[in-house]
Design brief:
Layout (H helix, E strand, L loop, with lengths): L1 E6 L6 H13 L6 E6 L3 H8 L6 H15 L7 E5 L9 H7 L4 E6 L5 H4 L4 H7 L2 H8 L2 E4 L2 H10 L4 E3 L22 E6 L12 H8 L4 E6 L12 E6 L3 H8 L4 E4 L5 H4 L4 H8 L4 E4 L2 H7 L5 E4 L2 H13 L1 H18 L2 H12 L20 E7 L6 H9 L7 E6 L6 H7 L1 H6 L3 E6 L7 H10 L6 E4 L4 E2 L5 H11 L3 E9 L5 H17 L1 H4 L11 E4 H7 L10 H11 L3 E12 L4 H4 L1 H15 L4 H13 L2
Parallel strand pairs: 1-2, 1-3, 3-4, 4-5, 5-6, 7-8, 7-10, 8-9, 10-11, 11-12, 13-14, 13-16, 14-15, 18-20
Antiparallel strand pairs: 16-19, 17-20, 18-19
Length: about 625
């Protein structure tokens, strides 16, 4: 696979270096051919950092060079654009790129969208306020550096999002806690750039106060060389950034700091300085803002400060107690090793840009012992009128489940009381009764609830039966188990559904769909529609363990995505011609067909190599109102 990164800057800028060039170095060259093409050169960036004049003709040259580079996109499979193609210009060239038939992803590690939607310039707000939202919505995927940008992307309409913080290469950092050597001066360290040096003003008074108690050095890496910054009682060392200088300085620090303003732009920061400090076994002190707070709060790896007094108290505490300094350093390093290294997150990136090929099929998985046990997962919200029928249909099965797992929302009716009224009856039948609350504040409530239930399953097979569906026969689950045993190489069994209260037109359309699947075959139909009836689809728990749970970036079509994922990876399924589930019409998917069509197009487009097929499928769904 050929990947082209179109970055804003060259490798001198941390964002490009860590979110593009680092991936180029780490991606397997046998699987990926990677090229990085920056818009702005090192010469431009060095002049910008040093406040030197940059010729308008040179800028025009750089823009023309970027335009010419777009001609070459035909040679690549995936295009990853850092932020946008051209800052402060309308998305003209991005629009053209969307018609290239290539997979287009956008990467955001800063709240750059606020340069437009919160600009003081009325014309910028008028013409560019929705630019980044448009790019996020139209892209094949958005790579968000933190939860703040993830939320912005979701609000913009993006349905395929990877939250990927800026990560380090752990091999570039010391792998053992450094032996502590007492020093005459307590060294407070800061790593940044000329554009972020403005935040240092926040720690001027705390450091001045600390300097009256003990000798203090403020060690700056990456601030402007002619930075006019003086603090009484504090020695200031300022060096240019280079990888060698940075690593040398980190070994001199006693504590790493990251002051930030509590404003929208800062909430889009990815806390990378903190990650660097923690990777170096350093305790950290940070402003209580955005991702910084998420990384530090309740993790015993550092302290948060919201005002000058809190900054002083935090720095003084770390200065005074070497044991706390050591414990925080170790805890921070452990966190980084788990969540913030290229080694731990590279697979996430690979799967995101190429989901159909990055996970190889484990043939041994399909040859394990027969699947004999099952668990029911029922999710419900305000379902008092139907859930008793659902539960009764389960308890009437000739082969009973090992577990009955309920994931219930905050219902306004009697749903939860009805579920609890069945508890003793369920337990008497030898079934484990499990009642869980829904995932609060989830973007995709239904797939999130499914995932919550599936995580509790201890049996061989997961049977999802929503609270308005039911089994029409006591032989439904015996039939399903028989199918799994009859087809030991299959990890999915799917059957037919009926709609007892549907209109004649709906029944006719469903019958037409069933005949199409039977005549054409479900494999051929995947790019056009989901050939499985999800309410009547039963999946082995070990398949979820292998390929993951439902993708909560999709609120309507998460079932289609998971099944397409399994199909693309080569996992086999068995189609049962029996009616296995009765399903009430008018559910969530029926009420949100427009969203479903859009999600289905995105999913099919990400898994098929023929980009025309998803477009045809989208038009077909639009005509049929499916």
């Amino acid at each position: 696979m050929k990947i082209l990164f179109l970055t804003k800057y060259d490798s001198l800028a941390a964002s490009s270096r860590l979110r593009a060039y680092q991936f180029k170095q780490q991606l397997d060259p046998l699987k990926f051919e990677v090229e990085v093409k920056p818009l702005f050169t090192r010469y431009y960036l060095q002049n910008k950092f040093n406040n030197k004049h940059i010729s308008l003709f040179y800028l025009v040259f750089l823009f023309l060079k970027r335009i010419l580079s777009l001609v070459a996109v035909k040679n690549y499979d995936v295009i990853v654009i850092h932020i946008e193609l051209f800052p402060f210009l309308p998305a003209i060239f991005e629009r053209l790129l969307f018609f290239s038939g290539k997979k287009i992803y956008f990467d955001y590690d800063d709240a750059v969208y606020h340069n437009y939607d919160m600009s003081k310039n009325v014309f910028v707000r008028l013409f560019l306020a929705s630019k980044i939202k448009f790019l996020m919505k139209r892209s094949d995927g958005v790579i968000a550096g933190n939860k703040y940008t993830e939320a912005y992307a979701k609000k913009a309409g993006a349905i395929n999002i990877l939250t990927l913080p800026t990560v380090i290469d752990i091999h570039e950092y010391e792998d053992k806690y450094p032996s502590y050597v007492p020093k005459k001066r307590f060294t407070v360290g800061w790593v940044g750039s000329p554009s972020t040096a403005k935040y240092l003003e926040m720690v001027r008074l705390p450091l001045e106060k600390l300097g009256k108690i003990t000798p203090v050095t403020l060690y700056l890496v990456g601030a402007r060389q002619n930075l006019n910054f003086i603090i009484k009682n504090v020695e200031i060392i300022s060096i240019e950034w280079s990888q060698e200088n940075e690593q040398k300085a980190l070994r001199e620090f006693d504590v790493g700091i990251m002051p930030l303003f509590d404003e929208p732009w800062e909430k889009g920061k990815c806390a990378f300085k903190l990650i660097q400090y923690m990777a170096s076994f350093l305790p950290v002190v940070s402003s209580n803002v955005g991702m910084n707070a998420e990384i530090i709060k309740n993790r015993k790896n550092g302290l948060l400060a919201s005002n000058s007094d809190e900054w002083f108290d935090a720095l003084y505490k770390i200065y005074q107690d070497p044991d706390i300094r050591k414990a925080m350093g170790r805890n921070g390093r452990k966190l980084v090793e788990t969540d913030f290294t290229i080694q731990s997150r590279l697979a996430d990136f690979e799967h995101f840009i190429n989901p159909a090929e990055t996970i190889s099929l484990d043939q041994g998985l399909q040859n394990l012992a027969p699947l004999n046990s099952y668990s029911i997962v029922t999710i419900g919200l305000n379902c008092a009128l139907t859930i008793a029928r659902t539960i009764d249909s389960v308890l009437l099965q000739e082969i009973l489940p090992m577990q009955y797992i309920f994931v219930m929302g905050d219902s306004q009716d009697d749903s939860n009381n009805i579920v609890m009224s069945y508890k003793s009856h369920i337990v008497e039948k030898g079934i484990d009764f499990i009642l869980l609350d829904e995932v609060k504040g989830s973007f995709a409530a239904i797939p999130s609830a499914w995932n919550r239930g599936i995580e509790m399953v201890n049996s061989d097979i997961v049977a999802i039966l929503n609270s308005d569906d039911y089994y029409p026969s006591s032989k439904t689950m015996p039939n399903v188990l028989y199918n799994f045993q009859l087809n030991p190489d299959c990890l999915i069994v799917s059957g037919r559904i009926n709609h007892p209260n549907s209109s004649a037109l709906s029944i006719g359309m469903n019958n037409l769909r069933e005949r199409a699947i039977g005549a054409i075959g479900h494999k051929i139909l995947f790019p056009y529609l989901n050939p499985y009836n999800h309410p009547a689809t039963f999946i082995a728990k070990k398949l979820y363990k292998k390929i993951g749970l439902y993708n909560t970036n999709y609120i309507v079509s998460a079932d289609y995505e998971l099944l397409y994922r399994a199909y693309s990876l080569g996992y086999k399924s068995s189609m049962n011609n029996e009616v296995l589930v009765s399903m009430e019409p008018g559910g969530f998917a029926s009420q949100n067909k427009k969203i479903g069509r859009k999600e289905a197009y995105k999913i099919a487009n990400s898994y098929t190599k023929l980009n025309l097929l998803p477009a045809l499928a989208f038009i077909l769904r639009l005509i049929l109102r499916k």
